[in-house]
Amino acid sequence: MKKNLAQIHKDISGKLLDSIRLLEILDTLNDGEAKQAIIIDILNQRISYAFHSILKCRRMISTKD
Predict the structure, then answer these.
(1) Which H or E element spans position 29?
(2) Angle 30-35-37 (CA atoms, 0-180°, nearest 5)?
(3) In this model, does residue 58 exceed pLDDT 80?
(4) Which residues contact residue 52 at a Cβ distance below 8 angstroms, ignoring those fewer than 6 apart?
(5) For residue 44, with 0-12 CB atoms within 10 Å meaning exposed, 13-18 middle and 19 or more buried, which class applies?
(6) What is this structure's pTM?
(7) pLDDT at 65
(8) Which residues are CB-neighbours of 15 under 8 A, at least 6 positions away?
(9) Of 1, 5, 26, 64, which is the most exposed, with the fewest CB atoms less than 10 Å away?
């Protein structure tokens, strides 16, 4: 069963949103450790950027239909 690009983008977006939520939880569990906070912040920025890039792709795909 092949998925279309819009569905694949939707699935990826959902996984990225889940990752953002998990990072938020991890951040609340962090006891102020600087190294952990930096890692969490970098991951959060990269996942957020990826999420927004996926949304831009989905908009580009939907305008071509």
Answers:
(1) helix 5-29
(2) 40
(3) no
(4) none
(5) middle
(6) 0.70
(7) 54
(8) none
(9) 1
